[in-house]
Design goal:
The protein is an alpha/beta fold. It has an 8-stranded mixed sheet, with helices on both faces. The chain starts with 12 loop residues before the first strand and ends with a helix. Strand 1 (13-19) and strand 2 (22-29) form a beta hairpin. The chain has helices at 50-56, 81-94, 107-118, 140-155, 163-175, 184-195, 199-208, 237-244, 260-263, 265-280, and strands spanning 13-19, 22-29, 35-39, 61-65, 101-105, 125-129, 224-230, 248-254.
């Protein structure tokens, strides 16, 4: 297992773009005719797709950004999925990326889906790596309870908490995302990276997911590859996702953590490359 990716400084070209007057950091490399734009997940940063960027930059132009408040991007007073979408669009425009492929992990899948909903046809297609695409209760009361649950979870990452308490909460939350076989060293590496994210960002980004307007049944017409990790595939998920993504290809990857792009980098890179080639035929 290659677990040193996050410890290595990227050699890709570093750039910034302004969103609401604040700098958004990103890296770009490759000279392919088509572009892949990578979107990381909650409290992560652009390095969380380093193996895939290294592997795909020989055939594609690859771009990865730090979402607002994450990594080297500047902080904002408030966070929303719409803000993250605007950051993705700002990078796309500055890099003249045309119609990119969007490859997104975790919360990044919500960002990518909103990008697709707001900009129909602008993305060539999507790859969701253990994407946080939730199936909410159908009734209004159930949806409100879900929203409250998410907001309560967000408070566990609040900067108002003592540092030790907050870090323990983050560790416990991440513990639910690992597989039984996930090595301790890998878990500690992920925890160390997540804890580098500003607490205001961690709380605000998680709270942004509780916006019920995000969770509609709008479908995306483009091809979608969905890689789901875990102990078992969520019952009924594939069928539900086909309603959202009619051109869905669904793959369950058992025995691997939420961070499968780092835990099994070669397999995920290969899955992405094969999907893109098959769609392009």
């Amino acid at each position: 297992m290659k677990i040193a990716w996050l410890l290595c400084a990227s050699t890709l070209l570093a750039e910034t773009v302004l969103v609401d007057g604040k700098k958004i950091f990103y890296r770009a490399e490759g000279n392919g005719k088509e572009t892949i734009l990578f979107i990381h997940g909650w409290s992560c940063n652009e390095t969380f797709f380093l193996p895939q960027r290294e592997g795909l930059s020989k055939s594609y132009r690859v771009i990865a950004l730090d979402l607002p408040g994450h990594g080297k991007s500047e902080s904002f007073d408030r966070y929303s999925i719409d803000l993250f979408v605007r950051a993705v669009e700002a990078v796309r425009v500055k890099e003249n990326a045309g119609r990119p492929w969007l490859v997104a992990h975790s919360m990044g899948a919500v960002v990518a889906r909103e990008f697709g909903k707001k900009n129909p046809g602008l993305a060539r297609g999507f790859v969701f790596v253990d994407g946080s695409i939730f199936r909410l209760p159908p009734d209004e009361a159930g949806r409100e309870r879900w929203k409250q649950m998410m907001e309560n979870l967000a408070q566990r990452f609040s900067p108002a908490l003592e540092k030790q308490v907050r870090e323990r909460n983050v560790s416990e939350f991440l513990g639910n995302l690992y597989a039984d076989a996930t090595p301790t060293e890998f878990r500690l590496m992920i925890l160390g990276q997540i804890l580098q994210t500003r607490p205001t960002t961690s709380e605000g980004a998680f709270r942004a997911l509780a916006d019920l307007k995000l969770w509609d049944d709008a479908a995306l017409a483009q091809p979608v590859l969905f890689l789901r990790a875990g102990r078992q595939a969520p019952p009924g998920e594939e069928q539900y996702l086909r309603g959202l993504f009619p051109q869905l290809r669904y793959k369950f990857v058992p025995g691997v953590s939420h961070f499968l792009q780092l835990e099994r980098p070669d397999e995920v890179t290969r899955d992405i490359a094969e999907f893109l080639r098959s769609v392009q035929k």
